[in-house]
Amino acid sequence: KQWYQRRVRVFQTFQHYFKQINLSEMEDGTVQLEIVPQDEEGQGVFFKEDGGRFDTSQTLKLMIDTKYTLRVYSKKDFSGSDILINGDILQMIPGERQEEGRQQVYSVVFNTSGIEKTKRADRSVLAVQIPTLPSGILVAIQCKYYRVGREDKAIWGVPLRRVNIQYKVVADVAVVDSVIFTRDNLKKNKNI
């Protein structure tokens, strides 16, 4: 029931955004996401290569009942914008402007409590609605949620630096062109 209520909220939010579309402002672009646990002792976030067994070849590894900070890097101004994460509407907080690439950084805290762990040999989705355009763009990031006590599984893989999302405008609609995980070379790599 809780998952259904989140889907209803996502749909209602999409209706709100789509009423505000200004097609003349739409252009291709890139957004980067960085996901870090709020726990100071956290090992970071990892991903693994799945090959062709699932919808996409890379899977993000997250813990349930955990708070994460999501940082959004973009050249677009998102001041006063909300972001949707798994159906929850959250206010993005502006951070410092990055001089290299002239990117603005926004952050938001999201919580994975109430999400069920992903079953073995299955994958879940981290749904993120990014306000890249007046209508926003929905990104479905393939992930696996682990229960507390299984941290060893969640940190087994490749350390995540950022999720690079490229989108294109096709027939006046923004669509995700690619979602690519980049490796964090400063963190220790765990065996996959």
SSE topology:
Blueprint: H1 2-18, E1 29-37, E2 46-49, E3 58-63, E4 67-74, E5 82-85, E6 88-91, E7 93-98, E8 103-111, E9 124-130, E10 137-146, H2 151-154, E11 158-170, E12 173-183
Parallel strand pairs: 3-10
Antiparallel strand pairs: 1-4, 1-11, 2-3, 2-11, 4-8, 5-6, 5-9, 7-8, 9-10, 11-12
Description:
- With 192 residues, the chain is mainly beta.
- Helices cover 11% and strands 47% of the residues.
- It has helices spanning 2-18, 151-154; strands at 29-37, 46-49, 58-63, 67-74, 82-85, 88-91, 93-98, 103-111, 124-130, 137-146, 158-170, 173-183.
- Strands 1, 2, 3, 4, 5, 6, 7, 8, 9, 10, 11 and 12 form a 12-stranded mixed sheet that branches.
- Strand 7 and strand 8 (103-111) form a beta hairpin.
- Mean pLDDT is 80; it is low at 15-23.
* Uncertain segments: 15-23
What form results from the Cα inertia axes?
Answer: globular
Taking all Cα atoms into account, the compactness measure Rg is: 16 Å
Strand content: over 45%
Secondary-structure-based class equals mainly beta
Number of helices: 2
H/E series, N to C? HEEEEEEEEEEHEE
Mean pLDDT across residues: 80
Task: Compute the separation of the termini in Å.
Answer: 35 Å
Helical fraction equals 10-25%
Q: Total strand count, please?
A: 12
Largest sheet: 12 strands, mixed
